[in-house]
Amino acid sequence: MRTKILVVDDHRMYRDGLKALLSRENDMDVVGEAENGEEAIVKTRELRPDVILMDVKMPVMDGVEATRRILAEMPGTKILALTMCSESECSYGIMRAGARRYISKGGDIKELTAAIRKETMRTRILIVDDHQMYREGLKAMLARQADMEVVGEADNGLDAVAKALELHPGVILMDVNMPIMDGAEATSRILAELPDTKILALSIQADDGFMASMLRAGAVGYILKGSDSEKLFGIIRRTAGFRNS
What we know:
single chain, Rossmann fold, 10 strands, alpha/beta, five-stranded parallel sheet, about 45% helix
């Protein structure tokens, strides 16, 4: 999935140069540009970019006010501040307005692309459950999260092993009780091949024997199927940031 980028700067030559450099990145796509903050708001509503590269000082409306208005309306947008002046001079206001970080215009393009990738990293998720309706419901909920991407699904443990080896997901949501191969055996086999994969057990209740076997096999935690969506998202995010010892 390519990151959609909006470039906002009042100097056309700088915009053109930035577009040319970013066009070399196979995971980024400059979907539009604007020359002032007012135009940036309009383009953001129209194009729904993932990331906005926002100049601080511009005519008509500066980057600080544009950032504030965009985030009030579209809070999931990631805004990176671009400026020529020093951090103390320019960045304080736009960072307070909600910009994610400050990038100097005089910096290396690698610094900028690394910052874009860091802000748009998505957790790659594999869903494993033998009930299609449950898988579809999970996929629909996770699709609404900007930092999560369902890369595949499986309906049994054996299929899960094959999909994990093919797709290399960051997190696997693994049902414990399935036909052909249960979740514990699948977890053990996956972690033998892909030890950095984070596996969360899915179960109707926490105190069954299947859950204990999942944790022994290497699952880092569990999610009860009756949990609300916000709790689910929080557990996935914490798990994605967990480092195996």
